[in-house]
Amino acid sequence: MPRPTGRVLTLLELLQSGGTRTVADLADRLGVEGRTVRRYVHQLIDLDVPVESVRGRYGGYRLAPGYRLPPLMLSDDEALAVLLGLVAGRRAGLTTTQHTANETASAKIRRVLPKHIARRLDTLLESLAFTEQPGEFDTPDAGVLLTIADAVRHRRPVSIRYTDRDGRRSERTLHAYGIVTHAGRWYVTGTDVRIGEDRTLRFDRIADARTLPGSFEAPAGPGPAQRVLSGFATAEYQHEVTLRIHATAEQIRAHLPASVARLEEHGPAAGEDRATERWLRVELRAERLDWLPPVLASLDRPFVIERPDELRALVTEFADRLASYARQA
Questions:
Q1: Residue of 31, 46, 111, 44 whose CA lies nearest to 79
Q2: What spatial distance separates the first Cα and last Cα of the chain, rounded to whole Å?
Q3: Which of 70, 72, 68, 73 is nearest to 13 (CA)?
């Protein structure tokens, strides 16, 4: 079923065909009631499209004489920016479930460009190479994404149908604070009203979203991006790890970013440089521990493992392996 925005654009196309269109005719062509046609007309007027109302027996609506949609005018730099943005967005997973939308948008832009500009841009795109292959990303439904974005903007509750990582389906009411992209995925962060706790949810697991009446106040504190990263660092996993590392926060974050670990950083003492190395507590959770010994080795800073004992054994084994490799002739 066409969305309201699509019907508004269809209405504009009908009016552009010329003449006066009756409300009954427009309603029939759009598959809506007469009062909905009038609402769509007001939306066009709000967009500065000069729709005129014609009274009388054969009255209806028409466009003001001489009106035409403005052509798409892009400079060389603007066209390059748009097409490179589409390429980068596709490779980074910043696209919707309509995978062809990126290609069709690129084709439409090329079609309206002067030939000499189009040839130059095609030459660049054909010559462009990437050091990394594009990943396989889970992408959101465009309708869900736009509905939740509107709910975030106007602080409106939203009802969603969600499937968690274990395959359990539920319907939730969410007070959404913001939308975040991270590592090629889209997330929404907000309060799950039923349990009264913050949650970070993946867009590709949301099957439907609809705005509810009412409003809410966004909480003070960290922004949406920081909430998402903190959620990753505190998610439920098999192992809880606590370390003390003698290093600067910047040195630690280079190997254990905020999405992986929480860092308990105390303010420097009076007269102490903030970049000075000191003992900082690091907490993280992980399903597996075998990746941590190489990370700690790459830090090359003194550290103490507070828990778990299993990690201490893995670090010792890793150090023994490195020592044995170093002794080989």
A1: 111
A2: 72
A3: 68
Distances in Å between the Cα of 152 and the Cα atoms of 103, 176, 238, 261, 322 are 29, 5, 33, 28, 51
Q: Hey, how many other C-beta atoms are within 10 angstroms of the C-beta on 104? A: 10
CA 196 to CA 199: how far, in whole Å? 9
Is residue 178 a contact partner of residue 188, using CB atoms and an 8 Å limit?
A: yes
Q: Tell me whether the omega of the peptide bond preceding residue 140 falls within 30 degrees of 0, making it cis.
A: no
Query: What pTM value is reported for the model?
Result: 0.54
Which pLDDT does position 162 carry in this prediction? 93
Higher pLDDT, 91 or 141: 141
Say if residues 95 and 102 touch (Cβ distance below 8 Å): yes
For residue 131, give the amino acid letter.
Answer: T
Report the C-alpha gap between 278 and 274 in whole angstroms.
10
Q: Which residues pair with 163 in a beta bridge?
A: 169
Which pairing describes strands 261-264 and 185-192: parallel, antiparallel, or unpaired? unpaired
Strand partners of residue 240: 285
Q: Which amino acid is at 292?
A: L
